[in-house]
Amino acid sequence: MVHIKERKLFFSLSFLMGAVVIVSNYLVQFPVKFYGLDNLLTYGAFSYPITFLITDLANRAFGKKIARYIVLIGFFIGIVLTFLVSTNFEDLISIRIAIGSATAFFISQNFDVTIFDRLRKRKWYIAPLTSSILGSIIDTFLFFSIAFYGTEIPWLTLAFGDLIVKLIVALIMLVPFRILLNKIKSYDNLEIKNFNY
Hints:
The chain is built from eight helices and no strands. It is mainly α and 197 residues long. α6 (126-148) runs antiparallel to α7 (155-172). The two termini are 13 Å apart.
């Protein structure tokens, strides 16, 4: 029997994942227009790395299988709402952003889950840092190439700037990960079938 606390954590992480994806998909459309960074960086780079924190917390709390379900739920919340709310279907770039986001998110988050699971028994920071860095590299390349390749948008420089910020944020995210790690109990012996929706 799954307790209320476990179910609450499961749904909180799933909802947060979807919310961060929506916000990031909106913010990625806006370059940072300070200090000459408009061809190097978008605001989405600051919010998106939080998805890796959420995935890693889910993996630590519930294990690989349920972490994948949280990624899937977050994916549907984030991507469906992105298509419905912020995608302009008369603008090809907007459509490509939505498709790029969906593809990059799904592949990179599942990759993150796999890497984290393989490294989970090492020192506490190895799994979240390694999985977030590798996931960020995959996510950045997939998203920017799908969304902006062949356009006048300087996607290579934007991807590079985006990746640098994501890597810095991945380091910073170790702080909340460590704090929250001490607050969550491990439920990784649970099966997804135990969750009564």
